[in-house]
Design goal:
- This protein has 126 residues and is an alpha/beta fold.
- Helix content is 37%, strand content 10%.
- The chain has four helices and three strands, in the order E-H-E-H-E-H-H.
- It has a three-stranded parallel β-sheet.
- Helix 1 links the parallel strand 1 and strand 2.
- The two termini are 38 Å apart.
- The chain binds zinc ion.
- The site of zinc ion has 5 residues, from loops.
Length: 126
């Protein structure tokens, strides 16, 4: 498996010097291992975010020739990514719904024994 380096700035303002140094460090670490370098925007705290900061940060990275691999991930959109993955697993039979409580699993010795695998439970109503 190849090395994956990550840089995850918060878009609270333009990239400051310390963050740039951190970005450089993780970039060169990843590249020295022939790995990938991914960028994830930590945009989970809207009141603290500065409009346009995310694109400003990305422009700064590009200006320093720090080219990320793949798509930039916006943390705020990750819920959708997870949901898509979960749906894929459910549809391909690699995952199933479970109605066990933490307490029940603990009572089984802390190891989930696939109790609900063959029950074909539907998605619970929220
Ligand atoms: Zn279960």
């Amino acid at each position: 498996m190849s090395y994956i380096g990550r840089f995850a700035p918060s878009p609270s303002g333009p990239l400051h010097f310390g963050s740039l140094v951190a970005a450089l460090g993780s970039y060169f670490q990843a590249k020295s291992q022939q790995g990938q370098w991914l960028v994830r925007i930590e945009d989970l705290d809207p009141p603290r975010e500065m409009p346009g900061a995310a694109s400003l940060i990305l422009e700064t990275l590009e200006a320093y020739q720090l080219h990320w691999d793949g798509e930039v991930v916006y943390q705020s959109q990750r819920h959708d990514l997870y949901q898509h993955q979960i749906e894929y697993w459910l549809q391909s039979g690699q995952a199933y719904y479970c109605q066990c409580t933490r307490k029940q699993i603990k009572a089984m010795g802390g190891f989930y024994q696939g109790t609900c695998r063959d029950l074909t439970l539907n998605q619970p109503d929220n």
